[in-house]
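Q: How would the structure tokens look for this protein?
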Amino acid sequence: MNKYPSPNINKSITLKEFLDLEISELLPNQDIMIKNHLNLVEYLDRESPFFVLRKFKNHSNRGSIYSFEKHKFTVSDNEPALWVFMETYYQSELDFPNLIKNQRFPIAFALKQEEKKGNIWQTKGRKHQDFSAKGWKHCHIFQCSPLAGKIAHKNDLKRRSLRLLSPLNHFPFFSPRKYSMPFDYGENKECIEYIIWWLYNHFYTNANKTYFKTFIESQDFIIPIEEPKDIKIDYSKKNNHGSKTKKMDNIKTKNQKKITTTSSKTNSNEVKKESTCFKISQNWYGIGFIITVNFINGRIFQYNHDFVYDNTISHYGKLDCWKKYGYYSSSKNIPTRAQPFVTEII
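A: Here is the predicted structure in token form.
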């Protein structure tokens, strides 16, 4: 089994170049994608399937059972979507009735304490850690949890489950946690429209185009006839291992005014946060926190929360405190395992 490829940071300067040069190696075999998509559609068309949806307003306890009329469902984070994508990439044909009945895929990386009481879904954790560790973000063509929170019909359940679990709705792109970008291309409307057009015209064979088109149009989107405008992509790898001296001009020194524990957005990808302790938390993952820690002994450290998380969770995720509370913290110092990924401010 080949490992998932690493990003080729020097290869692409436009979205078209990225797709032409790299995407075919980053997506699963299209025949397996279509097969797993159709297996999922067949299951969701049953009279009483058990639906799995991305969590949304008033339905946020991952692994708990909810109901709409007579239909049962649970909610998740992005773990089931990533799991399906990677299993398809490694050419597994997925039996969704068996997978869902026996809870074979993860519903979440870890549950918060308040979620555990109603949890009926036993599988948690991340099997395919190499994907995000290499710098990829798992993106969706269509949003898995639409902003209109209420469920009005059984078809809403089916549509949301399809968006979450169908491999046709997934694509990889550079992660804002590891790459500096003016905005998150994987969430950009124009980028996604171009990707839909490119996949239809340059990825899928004539035999498979119909299935992809049917899925796209079932989400109330029409594939453009003409090629949309290409988009320049501007990105560079973040220097998370940079030396202390190189970072001194961009961070606060001991003599600068300390701020109480608050957070404020600096751009669409990063959120500065001040704290009096070192902490990594499941609830903080994906927000983009750049954390400055002011210890009581006067030492100051700064770290990218998600970068530290990705490189240490294999250890901290096994601790009792993580299983109980979903986070690890230290109010006295930077723990040894995290020190290579944290910078002290002189």
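The radius of gyration is 21 Å.

Residues 141 and 188 are 10 Å apart (CA to CA).

Upvote if useful.
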